[in-house]
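go over this record:
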Amino acid sequence: MRDILILDREFGAGASTIAARLAQRLNWRLFDDELTREIATLARIPVDVCRRREERLDPWLQRLVHVVWRGTFDRNLPSPDLAILDTDRLVRLIEQAVVEAAQSKPCVIVGRGAPHFLRERADTLSVFLYASRELRFRRVIRRVSSKAEAVELVDQVDEDRKKFIKHYLGYEWPNRQLFHVMLNTGIGDDATVESILQLLESVNRAEKGASA
């Protein structure tokens, strides 16, 4: 049974909203911003640590921090103290958090490398969400303080993610082989949610029939 639903996404494509609605409809546990908090806990980062150092001894660490922390709208999430982390350690912590989250299935997991870290499992359904730049900008501008910040986030977060994954994991992002389906959220949140639910139900029904 596919009882781990993974959503990866372009920044601003609406994945957090869609994931929350999916988790509610399915009555499954949601791992989105909670997953970032868990990574911070594993790193023993105090909740009140919200600073980022200017010294960038490890430029890939700074990029990874942007991928994981900057790509969320929750400004209360702890950000790692770069003096006590390196890229290798942070990647290991992210993988550990994702693998532990999967143990709490049924669940919905958003991003954080889950399509890659859970790629060998047979109980996942992996979906990539994308949208036009204009739609993503309109979503982001509703959540941030300025047009300039929205433009920077839309243009930079995915670029950081793409460069880091290529450098560190060795493939182009998004890697289509990691996903069962890719959906344009321009069809609307309702249609996107219904499409994913129908796909999940169809796949589980087909696999159950095949094993009967």
Observations:
- The chain has a mean pLDDT of 83.
- The longest helix spans residues 189-211.
- Strands lie at 4-9, 29-31, 107-110, 124-130, 181-184.
